[in-house]
Amino acid sequence: FTTVESLWREFWRSQYNNNGDECEEEKYLSKSKLFSLCSLEPVQDFMKHVDLLFYQNLIQVLVPDVLKPIPATLTQSIRNFAKNLENWLTHAMSGAPSAMLSVKLSAVSAFSSSLRRYTSLNHLAQAARAVLHNTTQISQMLADLNRVDFNSVREQASWVCQCENDILGRFESDFKLTLQQQNSLEQWASWLKAVVKKALKPYEGKPTFSKAARQFLLKWSFYSSMVIRDLTLRSAASFGSFHLIRLLYDEYMFYLIEHQVAEATGCVPIAVILEGIVSNLEYPEC
């Protein structure tokens, strides 16, 4: 992973003070000419587009499946790598045009953010497996869930989020049934995908798709927080298990929405994150 820093420093000539026509040994383009090219807006746009594609491919290599176990040593290496990326790039591009530096940093920030989120999601997934495979814990969770005042939860969700009661009712029934069947993590993931697909289907092919997806995330978060609140007030014995499951499902739901929006807009998933990092600007070229 640390090789990336040296490659960046070499490419951006941070180890050279050469401002002549070429670096004699490697026949590189001079630093001054490189920076002149980087001042051109078309070059900056091209670099942004290529960076997003490249970083997305790197994510697929490093974290090909967010639910499958990853060795702890690799996870830590990826997280350390993500933590250092912005500093490495900033130092390597010292003296580069500010506009190009901004473009490069915004893309690498999105890359770093995605790596941290995906490794956290993977960690939660492995912790949740132990809960979902424990019959005693599942039985306790079902017992505690049946004590939740879902009428009150539905009323508040309906008022705040304008959620339809019949939809919430089906969601509760499906959740309890899936829990009762002691399904695997992969089966839960399939259920969550189906929930997202059904919720966003009315908006497919419409310009409001991204907004609808964000609204769905907010509604999901509010509804799940109300259920957790009720479990907390009742001092549910399985609160810890529910809290872990809720964290996992929230993160995985964000992951699913991110990919749904990317597919709908023709962007790579990392570009969806970039949109949030740089003040909700749109990047049609991604």
TrEMBL record:
Pfam family for this entry, one: BCD_RFX
RFX1-4/6/8-like BCD domain residues? 1-263
Q: Which InterPro entries match?
A: RFX-like, RFX1-4/6/8-like_BCD
Put simply, this protein is called RFX1-4/6/8-like BCD domain-containing protein
Origin species, per record, is Cryptolaemus montrouzieri
